[in-house]
Amino acid sequence: MHIRFDVPADPAYPGRVAAVLSSVRLRKHSYVGAVVVAVGVIGLAVSRGSDRGAATSPVWMAGVVGGLLLMLYPPWVRFRARRRSSRYAVEGGYDITDDNIMMRSGTESGGIAWDGVARVVETAEFWIVFVGRMPATVIPRRFMSAEEDQTLATFMAERGLRKA
Fold first, then answer.
1. pLDDT (tens digit, 0 to 9) for every residue of the chain, 164 residues total?
2. Which residues contact 87 (CB under 8 A, 6 or more apart)?
3. Which residues have C-beta within 8 Å of that of residue 45, sequence separation ≥ 6?
4. What is the dihedral of CA 17, 143, 146, 96, to 10 degrees?
5. Does the domain spanning 2-8+93-163 belong to CATH 1.20.1250.20?
6. What is the pTM of this model?
């Protein structure tokens, strides 16, 4: 397998990459925030019925507010990442072989060996490549032909890396 394609210098592209990577990294913040909000609401409801309700009410309210802030943190990070990354738009490209994924962006280049890849998650626009538990990079699908995308999907499925 040998897939090679270029990525044009699109100011919106780095923002989309930053948004997808941060959403993967910060997803658990939303879940934890929802649990904290639920516990806070339940605590408020229970404390209203008890005779110590006025004393414990600020604690439960702090839980609700803290949970809401945890839930709002990921969208805020994605917004800032999109806004700041537009100035990083440079031409780049990918060279994907049976051995590794080579990426170049401007004058910088780097690669990831397939042996180090733990899994790959498929989204509509990207293949998110994980090294260990962390997302390491993305492979943009829209710059590949349909045949190249299918070849890469088959290759990853054969290696047991592909997760939908």
1. 888 888 887 777 777 787 787 777 777 888 899 999 999 998 888 887 776 656 677 888 899 999 999 888 888 887 877 777 666 767 888 999 999 999 888 778 888 999 999 999 988 888 999 998 888 888 999 889 999 999 999 999 998 888 65
2. 11
3. none
4. -80
5. no
6. 0.68
